[in-house]
């Protein structure tokens, strides 16, 4: 029992700063939604649809860069600190190579709206938002490289501090550019994109400065030597990170495609879906933060060759996640009406969103289990299986069930957005089951004396 108490304390210490940082990001999304919604339901819907395109692209790149966390954690646990700077700099090189093609992809992505029969004003606002937010991409990725480096060392407070800096930039910037204050044009929902660009610039610069000047990072000497492109090390990062990115892309695009498929049903339906999704995303930050903490702790134990402690940390994180999710589910059910009213005053939107949040409460336990299991597996660098499971669970199971219930009469009369949310429950539950089974098999393998490779060829 004592070992589990120790793991709870360790996980909690790492999790809290990550949670505050994750909530800061979610609060920024909340502010965007509310302030755009105050202009019109169409502006809110434009932000929702644009983020449904922008966010998967960002998360795919972030997923690759998240590989730096377990790689650094295992090197740190194995006392191989001298190799960390090169790994991090390869992440920076990756960003410099990839950001221009990805910006171009975002710039031209609004062409998809032509095939979705989206109403003209909504399509116009969505296009303007996407073309502006594309400028944020290199700064968002640069921030993620340094964040992953910090977290791999088990230092999570900088992520929290800089997340709070992001809020301090986001709120006034939204106020200025959405409403047109201090001589700026009133851009409506597109002003949220301008604010986001400024936020990511500020956060990227702050994170780099923190790494350079703070005493916690002096021993690593991240910038003392400039390393050129190392194909072997960059391949290692991509090899570990691509499955993470692909699995995140599967999850994010599931929600994104649903927003796009709902667009022909009108701005009110999309806005209600966005309200429920935004709040659910805020709640999800708790198990997500715990999953990131599990990656750090498990990775460092693996580096130290302590498989029993890695197993204990994984199990502890899972039970913590289940406990937290039961509490948040009850909270969602009891206060769903009051929560919806925070986002909008439109009663039609509130009524639809309230029903969706009732469904969202149901899957919170499965969602917690799957994200924490995935986090623990990332600590072991067991990432390929995560992609396979999420692809099957989210798309073969979740989207198939969701689309069938939402937009067809094959099983029941078309349910609209509620059908998709039932699909979410199905997909997340399947992912939770399969990822838990895989994690159990990793426990057996590692505790029987097998080791996880630490070399760049792993």
TrEMBL record:
<feature type="transmembrane region" description="Helical">
    <location>
        <begin position="315"/>
        <end position="335"/>
    </location>
</feature>
<dbReference type="GO" id="GO:0006811">
    <property type="term" value="P:monoatomic ion transport"/>
</dbReference>
<dbReference type="GO" id="GO:0015297">
    <property type="term" value="F:antiporter activity"/>
</dbReference>
<feature type="transmembrane region" description="Helical">
    <location>
        <begin position="282"/>
        <end position="303"/>
    </location>
</feature>
<keyword id="KW-0050">Antiport</keyword>
<dbReference type="InterPro" id="IPR048279">
    <property type="entry name" value="MdtK-like"/>
</dbReference>
<dbReference type="GO" id="GO:0005886">
    <property type="term" value="C:plasma membrane"/>
</dbReference>
<keyword id="KW-1133">Transmembrane helix</keyword>
<keyword id="KW-0812">Transmembrane</keyword>
<protein>
    <recommendedName>
        <fullName>Multidrug-efflux transporter</fullName>
    </recommendedName>
</protein>
<dbReference type="Pfam" id="PF01554">
    <property type="entry name" value="MatE"/>
</dbReference>
<feature type="transmembrane region" description="Helical">
    <location>
        <begin position="158"/>
        <end position="178"/>
    </location>
</feature>
<feature type="transmembrane region" description="Helical">
    <location>
        <begin position="234"/>
        <end position="262"/>
    </location>
</feature>
<keyword id="KW-0406">Ion transport</keyword>
<feature type="transmembrane region" description="Helical">
    <location>
        <begin position="90"/>
        <end position="109"/>
    </location>
</feature>
<dbReference type="InterPro" id="IPR002528">
    <property type="entry name" value="MATE_fam"/>
</dbReference>
<keyword id="KW-1003">Cell membrane</keyword>
<feature type="transmembrane region" description="Helical">
    <location>
        <begin position="12"/>
        <end position="41"/>
    </location>
</feature>
<feature type="transmembrane region" description="Helical">
    <location>
        <begin position="184"/>
        <end position="213"/>
    </location>
</feature>
<feature type="transmembrane region" description="Helical">
    <location>
        <begin position="385"/>
        <end position="406"/>
    </location>
</feature>
<keyword id="KW-0813">Transport</keyword>
<dbReference type="GO" id="GO:0042910">
    <property type="term" value="F:xenobiotic transmembrane transporter activity"/>
</dbReference>
<dbReference type="InterPro" id="IPR050222">
    <property type="entry name" value="MATE_MdtK"/>
</dbReference>
<keyword id="KW-0472">Membrane</keyword>
<feature type="transmembrane region" description="Helical">
    <location>
        <begin position="418"/>
        <end position="437"/>
    </location>
</feature>
<feature type="transmembrane region" description="Helical">
    <location>
        <begin position="53"/>
        <end position="78"/>
    </location>
</feature>
């Amino acid at each position: 029992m004592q070992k589990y108490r120790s793991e709870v304390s360790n996980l909690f210490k790492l999790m809290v700063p990550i949670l505050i940082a994750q909530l800061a990001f979610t609060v920024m999304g909340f502010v965007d939604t509310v302030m755009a919604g105050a202009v019109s339901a169409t502006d809110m819907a434009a932000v929702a649809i644009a983020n449904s395109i922008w966010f998967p692209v960002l998360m795919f790149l972030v997923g690759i860069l998240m590989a730096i966390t377990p790689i650094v954690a295992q090197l740190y646990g194995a006392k191989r600190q001298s190799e960390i700077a090169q790994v991090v700099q390869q992440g920076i090189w990756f960003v410099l190579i990839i950001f221009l093609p990805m910006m171009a992809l975002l710039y031209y992505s609004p062409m998809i709206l032509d095939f979705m029969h989206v109403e003209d004003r909504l399509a116009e606002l969505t296009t303007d938002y996407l073309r502006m937010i594309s400028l944020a991409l290199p700064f968002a990725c640069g921030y993620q490289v340094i964040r992953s480096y910090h977290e791999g060392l088990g230092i999570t407070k900088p992520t929290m501090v800089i997340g709070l800096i992001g809020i301090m930039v986001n709120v006034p910037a939204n106020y200025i550019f959405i409403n047109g204050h201090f001589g700026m044009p009133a851009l409506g929902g597109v002003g949220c994109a301008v604010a986001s660009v400024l936020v990511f610039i500020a956060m990227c610069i702050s994170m780099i400065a923190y790494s350079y000047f703070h005493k916690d990072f002096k021993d690593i000497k991240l910038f003392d030597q400039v390393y050129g492109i190392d194909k072997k090390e960059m391949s290692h990062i991509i090899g570990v990170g691509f499955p993470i990115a692909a699995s995140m892309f599967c999850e994010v695009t599931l929600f994104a495609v649903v927003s796009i498929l709902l667009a022909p049903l009108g701005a009110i339906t999309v806005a209600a879906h966005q309200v429920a999704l935004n709040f659910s995303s805020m709640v999800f930050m708790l198990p997500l933060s715990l999953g990131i903490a599990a990656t750090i702790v498990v990775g460092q134990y693996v580096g130290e060759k302590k498989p029993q402690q890695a197993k204990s940390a994984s199990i502890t994180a899972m039970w913590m996640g289940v406990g937290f999710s039961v509490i948040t589910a009850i909270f969602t059910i009891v206060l769903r009406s009051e929560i919806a009213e925070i986002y909008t005053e439109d009663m039609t939107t509130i009524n639809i969103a309230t029903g969706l949040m009732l469904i969202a409460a149901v899957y919170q336990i499965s969602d917690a289990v799957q994200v924490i299991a995935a986090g623990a597996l990332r600590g072991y660098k067991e990432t390929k299986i995560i992609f396979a499971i999420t692809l099957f669970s989210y798309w073969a199971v979740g989207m198939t069930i969701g689309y069938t219930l939402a937009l067809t009469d094959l099983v029941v009369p078309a349910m609209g957005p509620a059908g998709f949310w039932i699909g979410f429950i199905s997909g997340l539950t399947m992912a939770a089951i399969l990822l838990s089974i895989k994690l159990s098999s990793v426990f057996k393998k590692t505790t029987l004396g097998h080791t996880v490779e630490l070399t760049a060829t792993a």
